[in-house]
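Quick question, first post here. What does this chain look like in 3D?
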Amino acid sequence: MDHPTGVVSVVGDFNHWSPGLHELQRRRGGIRSVSVILPPGVHRFRYLATGGMWFDDDTADAIDHGGSLIHL
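> Answer (accepted):
Ran it through. Tokens below.
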């Protein structure tokens, strides 16, 4: 789960929970990232990996039953 294979997308209220719009790109050191410009406010998101594996961001401001939350 820490290193899913295949494509990973960040999906959330900012992109209508649409996979593939914001795919994470592999970077040096084995990390993946993507930049998304968001307006101020609270945004809910999760990550979706190939095969339907959903996971949350343990560095988010909060995590609840609906996913990760970030406060901007």
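The beta strands are 8-12, 25-26, 32-33, 42-49, 53-55, 62-64, 67-71.
The mean pLDDT is 92.
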